[in-house]
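Re-run with default settings, no changes from the original entry. Doing this only to confirm the output is reproducible before filing.
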Amino acid sequence: MSEASLTLLTDLIAAAKKAGADNADAILADGESTAVTYRLGELEQLERSEGGDIGLRVLVGQKQAIVSSSDRSQQALEELVDRAVAMAKTVPDDEHVGLADPDQLVTGMPNLDMCDPDDLGTNALVEAAKTCEEAARAVDGITNSEGATASWGRSRVAIAASNGFQRTYESTGGSFSASVLAGDVETGMETDYDYTSAVYASDLRDAVDVGRTAGERTVRKLGARKIKSGKYPIIFEQRTARGLLNHFLGAINGNAVARGTTFLKDRIDTAVFGSGITIVEEPHRARGLRSKPCDAEGLANSDHKLIDAGVLTTWVLDLRSARKLGLQSTGHASRGPSSPPAPSVTNVNLMPGTQTPEGLIKEIEQGVFVTDAFGQGVNGVTGDYSRGVAGFWIENGELTYPVNEITIAGNLKDMFPSLTPADDLDLRYGIDSPTVRIDGMSVAGN
């Protein structure tokens, strides 16, 4: 694919410049994937998809337009160029758009081992989905199933630009997941899930383990109660703690900073978390779920300490957001065939602390252990945080009974400095956090 794809893109760019574009870049993305769903002991769905898109971005002065298509016939590509150039001539100027200067482009890129040479075939996927659901349904107390899914895919991407940037890469990825129900209408029903995803098939968790964990997580929710409203310490298990990390990442995104729509807009080089907190980004992690050898604008990327001993050290910037702020890009551009570059992170994790999760819990007389969070009640401008949650009541340092139909509230400006991480960081999702504790949050229950 590599040479033919780059030739197609460079020809497209040349045609755009001939049609009146001052600069242009283009991206081609091809892929194929297979997904299998097994439910209640039967093969419910088998999907195989193949496809691709090509996107062209043209710049006429300080105007830009993007057009994409899945049709690669000569006529379609000619129409793609004509539409893109015509659109660019009609949109308003944007003084911040533009390609990287040639001397900004990365030279030499690391091998990140992002492509498994072997595929998970259909038979293996069927067996994995079947095994995963069987393990989930075998857990005592499970009464129904939403199904188990196994998937595998391979993608190929090529990017070229009129500034000389060219890049091709291939990547793979797969996942197993299961979602089941426990209880009944009269006594109350609960549901939960578990999943695993990885670049290499050999790095996926065992399907039996995924299914069994999904079942066990579901059953332990049975008999949930409400609790009395008040202020309590809150423990966020790994899965829900990742949500807090995502809120932080959204708050330091260059687009939000440039618009002034983030509660952290004035906090660069100041303490945002406690002094024991470090948040790192590793774009070159081998087989990382979000790894990239460079960014989508051809700029080098590198490891960052986004938070260093509690201090916010950087924004997440692409070229456009950096220009708006009078800064340099941090190599965080990401894009697809139908969208312009935008800031986006790669592999990020909150570094672990020294206490076990059990140790954090033992210090709590009364509190909530959060296993699920619902809704999107987070205001990125003010930092106000309010979400429905479910989990377990903590009494005298022990998890006692499941709780639900409660809401926790606070403000991220207060929550971040009081956050304490446990020692159980597990790099499973690309954006990862250990279990964390935050004291003094408002809880609305009975």
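Residues 2-18 form the longest helix (17 residues). The radius of gyration is 24 Å.
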